[in-house]
Amino acid sequence: MMLAQASVGLIETWWVAHLGTDALAGMALVFPGFMMMQMLSAGAIGGGISSAIARALGGGRRGDADALVLHALVINGAFGLGFTALVLWFGPALYAALGGEGGSLRAALAYSDIVFGGAIMIWLSNAFASVLRGTGNMMLPSISIIIGVVVLVPLSPLLIYGLGPVPAMGIAGAGWAVVAGMALSTVILAWAVISGRSIARLRWARLRWALFRDILAVGAVASVSTLQTTLTIALTTAVVARAGGPDAVAGYGTGTRLEYLLVPLVFGLGAPLVALVGTNIGAGQGARALRIALTGGALAFVVTETIGLVAAIWPEAWLGLFGADPRMLETGAAYLRVVGPTYGFFGLGLSLYFASQGAGRLGWPLFGGLLRLVIAVGGGWVALHMTGSLAWVFAALAAGLVVYGVVLAVVTSSGAWFRQAPEPEGLAIAK
What residue ranges are annotated as transmembrane (predicted)? Predict the structure, then answer.
């Protein structure tokens, strides 16, 4: 599942790259927002859903677990419609502010209108998947993702370039392929939950604020953390655009896409971490929950650090898949050589963020994400104005990742979940 989900972005970017630099830059402008939506629906709010259901089941509250399914669908359905409205209304101004102009801006809007127009499919699919993961069922969500990728592989080039009676849609075709794959996944997962193949089942229940709060107490705070990650990439994209123009944005966007592809890889470990930690916390097994979290963090570090080191040593092997423009290759390679060796710290911090969702204690992940944002964006902006060099901007990004991973590893291993006041002042979540 991890490999299948990560390959979606790779496949789509590879096909779009053949449309030219403007199309690649346009996708780079949309990608942070799209990934933010994926991370919110699957990792943040989705993590809140899984955590609430896992804690209910761990505490023997089967009735609440069933009722939480309906509450999860209400929450994610509302968010899906809200995302569609916001992006369709503010998208043009947003992409222009991030450096889009001319052909790259037109490409961004053509792709964005489609994928965000179908946003509710993504949110509902991840609601059903999160319910299943909260019960410990990783198989059905994985199967649905793999089926979606199998559909995307031939559908994306068919809709982009056309064949026979199917007209060529360009970059908009890539958007339609994503929406179609997510719609199929939604149908599969909905069938699994509604037909009773889930421990937590969809039943009609009176809507209760206590159950909404059970999900949102974790999901809302986790959403702030997700916004921090996306804002970091979006603001540094604007810095790169100011320094080097659309070609540099294309190179930076292609490089950061590898960083974003680490998210589904770590999510493959993070989803079971939410369920395992949440169930053990609900059952009063705090020491075991902590061992699970640290084991998952170590595994995530090894996987993501290996990918980062390979990318830093051979950046052209990744970048060359998407184009041969010299400026694009130069910027992307500079990013990967500097930031790639710190990917392990990103994987470590992200896995502990998922584990903290299971524990219902997200103050420290939020604080770590804030530190990363300040160091990466603030430090990068200062570095650019002082040196005029993108290399120092990328150094600030790398420093932010290291701080993020180290802070979360230190505070989690020290038992911060179990102390009376473990979160930094002002960041404690409502219990």
Answer: 35-57, 69-90, 110-131, 143-163, 169-194, 215-241, 261-281, 293-314, 334-355, 362-384, 390-411
Beta bridge partners of 163: 166
The b/e string for 349-382 (b: 16+ C-beta within 10 A; e otherwise) is bbbbbbbbbbbbbbbbbbbbbbbbbebbbebbbe
Does residue 206 surpass a pLDDT of 80?
A: yes
Residue 226 neighbours by CB distance under 10 Å: 25
CA distances (Å), 137 to each of 53, 131, 132, in order? 12, 9, 5
First to last CA, the chain: 33
Task: Give the tens place of pLDDT for each residue, 273-298.
Answer: 988 898 888 888 889 999 999 999 99
Q: Which amino acid is at 2?
A: M
Q: In this structure, what token pair is assigned to residue 324?
A: 């041969």
* Cβ atoms < 10 Å from Cβ of 201: 16
pTM as predicted: 0.72
What's the distance, CA 317 to chain centroid? Answer: 24
Asked if 221 contacts 244 with a C-beta cutoff of 8 angstroms, the reply is: no
Residue 81: band (very low, low, confident or very high) from pLDDT cuts 50, 70, 90:
very high
Contact yes or no for 100/29 (Cβ under 8 A): yes
